[in-house]
Design goal:
The chain has one domain. By secondary structure, it is of the alpha+beta class. The longest helix is centred in the C-terminal third of the chain and has 28 residues. It has five helices and eight strands; from the N terminus they run H-E-E-H-H-E-E-H-E-E-H-E-E. The chain has a four-stranded mixed sheet with strand order 2-1-5-6, covered by helices on one side. A two-stranded antiparallel sheet has the order 3-4. Strands 7-8 form a two-stranded antiparallel ribbon. Strand 7 and strand 8 form a beta hairpin.
Length: 165
């Protein structure tokens, strides 16, 4: 199996609050100013994030009420659909709703080609990086983890496993 066959292109953008500077995640949180998303959507995402923290009961680690939880989930669903429309059908939008994950995907071309291009660039950069790592792995051969004993001798502790990415 070649490195090209092992690497799959990421197509999921995650949407969730997690004490990060952004609720938009693609291999990690993505700064709003880099996403090229519309100003209206960025503002709505920031407000959704702020309302999440304002709605939490820190003692129970849940929402202060079912009404607040329902409002957060409903707004998350709305924002996920808006994000999907901006980036187009090439990306699935997944968002966390405390009781699981929900996803959506646009069925029409991207309404924001600049945002679509940005996320395509991220996905392509990740694929290039993973291919390079796979090539390095193929070039270097099997890797074995070793430890040194008190007497200075080396002992293999985990045998090599050749698994695809």
């Amino acid at each position: 199996m070649t490195s090209d066959q092992r690497v799959q292109r990421r197509t999921t953008i995650r949407l969730f609050s997690d004490y990060a500077p952004s609720v938009v995640w693609f291999m990690g949180p993505v700064a709003y100013e880099k996403t090229r998303l519309s100003d209206e959507l960025v503002t709505a995402l920031q407000e959704w994030d702020s309302s999440f923290y304002a709605s939490l009961d820190l003692q129970t680690r849940g929402f202060k009420s079912e009404a607040l939880a329902g409002a957060h989930v409903a707004e998350g669903e709305r924002l996920a659909r808006l994000l999907a429309r901006e980036v187009g059908p090439g990306f699935e939008i997944e968002y966390d709703v405390f009781r699981g994950k929900v996803s959506t995907r646009s069925q029409v071309p991207a309404e924001n080609p600049e945002a679509e291009a940005f996320f395509n660039e991220l996905a392509d950069a990740e694929v290039a990086q993973l291919k390079r790592l796979a090539e390095l792995r193929e070039e270097s051969g099997p890797v074995r983890l070793m430890r040194t004993s008190e007497d200075g001798s080396l002992h293999e502790i985990i045998p090599s496993v050749d698994e695809p990415f």
